């Protein structure tokens, strides 16, 4: 397996630089890098961008949003150099349309799904099954059509036979940070977000339960370089930075866990 990984990396590097030599090199008139990333990465990647600028002198322009929305933007021609998704599905669909360099694609972080309530809530929920009780009226979740967190939540509800019981209670949000905002403002009784989102809420929410990883697909974050990127060398520099000690410290600071690479 180690040999295969090295071979894939070598092929990608050769492809990258041959593309650069044929006219796809970083343009001196456009040194900024455009990164479309899942909104749950906003805090960590904003700091990552500052680190990247300190090391390269180049600015990263971030476009944060629901992974499915970002995917659609890329499919319709949005000028993006790097895509970082909160789900495998979005990346695989872009790969199927030949819009990314598949050899550059790699998982770089993991996350967990948690149940949260407003800090001053009187609800004492201890598990997701209690969401079906009458005391819970409104539950914010990501829209499963475009939001990976919503897709993982839907899998969780199905696995625990909760989907039908909760259907009328669900308030669909356009991304996971909107779910967090609904809970912070007390507009819903509870919400399902990533552990990293709850971690940046400054004590305005309480985590009452953590989903078992067996109840949904692994929450992995893949990243890749777009084929239409005009900043391929810079894109690779940004991706490489994520795996440095400094880059990993930033991800861990915001609650993301490491991806374990198996030989």
Structural class: alpha/beta
Radius of gyration: 19 Å
As a percent range, the share of strand residues is 15-25%
Helical amount: 40-55%
Short description:
This protein has about 260 residues and is α/β, with parallel strands linked by helices. About 40% of the residues lie in helices and about 20% in strands.
Describe the structure.
The chain is of the alpha/beta class. The protein contains 10 helices and 10 strands. It has helices at residues 2-24, 42-56, 67-75, 88-96, 148-159, 163-166, 176-184, 195-199, 232-242, 245-253, and strands spanning 33-38, 60-65, 82-84, 106-110, 113-118, 139-142, 170-173, 190-194, 205-210, 220-225. Strand 1 (33-38), helix 2 (42-56) and strand 2 form a beta-alpha-beta unit. The protein starts with a helix and ends in a 10-residue tail after the last helix.
Tag the structure with descriptive keywords.
five-stranded mixed sheet; 10 helices; disordered N terminus; 263 residues; 19% strand; alpha/beta; 40% helix
Task: Give the helix/strand layout.
Layout: H1 2-24, E1 33-38, H2 42-56, E2 60-65, H3 67-75, E3 82-84, H4 88-96, E4 106-110, E5 113-118, E6 139-142, H5 148-159, H6 163-166, E7 170-173, H7 176-184, E8 190-194, H8 195-199, E9 205-210, E10 220-225, H9 232-242, H10 245-253
Parallel strand pairs: 1-2, 1-3, 6-7, 6-8
Antiparallel strand pairs: 3-10, 4-10, 5-8, 5-9
